[in-house]
Write a structure and sequence with these properties.
alpha+beta, Alpha-Beta Plaits, four-stranded antiparallel beta sheet, 2 helices, 4 strands, 35% helix
Length: 95
């Protein structure tokens, strides 16, 4: 059995963010919502000290690329609807 892996890197702009605490509070739903899912790993991968910018990576594993693609699409849709930030870049890579 082969495993498909997808890596989605999202860059966010957090308009009007004035502190790192506020930044974490605005993005915490991402980790809380997906962080307990068995086939998804999440990390804040860059821009940790920037107040109005963030970069997060989502790594999804599944038995097929179709399932990986669907999961990445669901993550993206959730973020667009529920996070107080604008996605300014979205890159997806499959391994």
């Amino acid at each position: 059995m082969s495993i498909s892996i997808g890596i989605m890197t999202l860059r966010f702009h957090l308009e009007g963010c004035h502190s790192l605490k506020e930044k974490r509070n605005r993005l915490v739903r991402i980790r809380d919502h997906f962080g307990k899912t068995a086939n998804i790993a999440i990390c804040e991968s860059s821009l940790q000290e920037k107040l109005q910018s963030a970069q997060w990576c989502y790594i999804v594993t599944a038995s097929s690329r179709t399932i990986v693609t669907q999961s990445l699409s669901q993550i993206d849709a959730y973020i667009v609807q529920n996070i107080d930030a604008v996605i300014i870049d979205n890159q997806i890579e499959y391994l």
